[in-house]
Design brief:
2 domains; binds pyridoxal-5'-phosphate; Aspartate Aminotransferase, domain 2; alpha/beta; 7-stranded mixed β-sheet; globular; 3-stranded antiparallel β-sheet; single chain; Aspartate Aminotransferase, domain 1; 14 strands
C-alpha cells in the first residue's frame, strides 16, 4: 500500500526520510552489526547517538548552556507530577493557566502536590481563545506558572509567551515544540511528549534551567527527580533508546531542511491554507478566534454533522486518514505537524472543496 497522509494528533506522521533511514539502518547501524534497539545504552555507539541528538536539539532550539536537556520515560503526563515535585522548592502554591483539556490534566495533577491558583482562563462565550497578558492574575509566592502553549484537542494556541517576571514559566509544549523558533531563556521548564512533533511515543524531552533543580518534595521517587536524571545524562536507568535515536534522526532532518525558521514558514503556510479553506466556506467551520488558532491542530466541523461519517469514510478512501475529531469535541481534527507534507494539506483542502460540491 502507498503511504497515506495521516492527520493523527499523536502518535503522528514521521518524515519519510527519517523512516527510510531507520529502515536502512535497522539491521546494521553504521557497521555495528546491530539494530539501535539492541545496543547497550552505555556502549560507545549509543552514547554517540545520544550526544549527537542532544547537540542537534540544542542547536535547533538555541538552548542556552545553563539549561539541561533530559530524555525521560513517562511521556508528558509524568511531567504533570514531576514539575511540582521539582519546582515547588519549599513553596506551597503554583499558578496555572487553564486553556483546555491538557491544562486541566496538568492542574488536576498539580493539585495533588500544592495549592493551585488558576491565574488565567480562556474567556467564556464567543470563539475559543486564551487569556491576554493583562487578564493574568499571577499570585505572590507562586513557585512557578504553568501553561499549555498549544491545546492539542481544542486547537487553541497562545499568540504570545506570558510574562511572569522572576517566577519560572513552565510550558507543556507537547504539540508545538519545534514548530517554530522560541526564546528558551524565557522559560524555566519546557517539556514535550515525543509522539507528536518529535518521533515515536515513549519519551518526554525536558529542557530545564539548571538553577531550578536539586530540591524535591519529600518522598519524590528517584525516577521523578530532575537532578538524578541530569547527573546521569538521562541514563539513571535504561532510557527509551530507540525513540531517542528516532528523535535524533528527526532533528537531523530538521537541520537539513533549514531548521525551525524554515519550519515556521512552512507551518504557517500549511495552516493558513487549511483555515482559508474553512473560512471561505459556509459548509465548514472552526471554533477558534483567528489570533489563537493552532498551526498544528486544526479542528473543524461540518454544517451538517450527519455527514461526518461520510466525510471521514470518503477521506479515508483517498488516503486522508485519522481526521476524526477528539471524542470530547466531535467533528474533525487535522493535525499537521512538521512531518505532514504540504502536499497532504493541499490534498485535504481539495478533498474538502470537492466534498462540499457534492454534498453542500
Ligand atoms: C498529548 C499531550 C499530552 C500527553 O502526552 P503523553 O505523552 O501521552 O503523556 C500532554 N500535553 C499535551 C499538550 C499533549 O498534546
Amino acid at each position: 500500500m502507498a503511504r497515506v497522509f495521516n492527520f493523527s494528533a499523536g502518535p503522528a506522521m514521521l518524515p519519510e526520510a527519517v523512516l527510510k533511514q531507520a529502515q536502512q539502518e535497522m539491521l546494521d547501524w553504521q557497521g555495528s552489526g546491530m539494530c539501535v534497539a539492541e545496543m547497550s545504552h552505555r556502549g560507545k555507539e549509543f552514547m554517540s547517538i545520544a550526544e549527537k541528538t542532544e547537540a542537534d536539539l540544542r542547536e535547533l532550539m538555541a538552548i542556552p548552556d545553563n539549561y539541561k536537556v533530559l530524555f525521560l520515560q513517562g511521556g508528558a503526563s509524568s511531567q504533570f507530577a514531576m514539575v511540582p515535585m521539582n519546582l515547588l522548592r519549599g513553596k506551597t502554591s503554583a499558578d496555572y493557566l487553564n486553556t483546555g483539556a491538557w491544562s486541566k490534566k496538568a492542574i488536576a495533577e498539580g493539585k495533588r502536590y500544592c495549592d493551585v491558583n488558576i491565574a488565567g482562563v480562556s474567556p467564556e462565550g464567543g470563539m475559543a481563545s486564551v487569556p491576554t497578558q493583562s487578564d493574568l492574575k499571577l499570585t505572590d509566592g507562586a513557585a512557578y506558572v504553568h501553561y499549555t502553549p498549544n491545546e492539542t484537542i481544542g486547537g487553541v494556541e497562545f499568540p504570545y509567551v506570558p510574562e511572569t517576571g522572576d517566577v519560572p514559566l513552565v510550558a507543556d509544549m507537547s504539540s508545538t515544540i519545534l514548530s517554530r523558533p522560541v526564546d528558551v531563556s524565557k522559560f524555566g521548564v519546557i517539556y514535550a511528549g515525543s509522539q507528536k512533533n518529535i518521533g515515536p511515543a515513549g519519551m518526554a524531552i525536558v529542557i530545564v534551567r539548571d538553577d531550578l533543580i536539586g530540591e524535591t518534595l519529600d518522598g519524590t521517587p528517584a525516577m521523578f527527580n530532575y537532578q538524578i536524571h541530569a547527573d546521569n545524562g538521562s541514563m539513571y536507568n535504561t532510557p527509551p533508546t530507540y525513540t531517542w535515536y528516532m528523535a535524533g534522526l528527526a532533528f537531523a532532518w530538521l537541520k537539513e531542511n533549514g531548521g525551525l525558521a524554515a519550519m515556521a514558514r512552512t507551518n504557517e503556510r500549511k495552516a493558513g491554507k487549511l483555515y482559508a479553506a474553512i473560512d471561505g466556506s459556509d459548509f465548514y467551520a472552526n471554533p477558534v478566534a483567528p489570533a489563537c488558532r493552532s498551526w498544528m491542530n486544526v479542528p473543524f466541523t461540518l454544517a451538517n454533522a450527519d455527514l461526518d461519517a461520510t466525510f471521514l469514510a470518503e477521506a479515508s478512501s483517498v488516503g486522508l486518514k485519522t481526521l476524526k475529531g477528539h471524542r470530547s469535541v466531535g467533528g474533525m481534527r487535522a493535525s499537521i505537524y512538521n512531518a505532514m507534507p504540504e502536499a497532504g494539506v493541499d490534498a485535504l483542502v481539495s478533498f474538502m472543496a470537492d466534498f462540499e460540491k457534492r454534498y453542500g
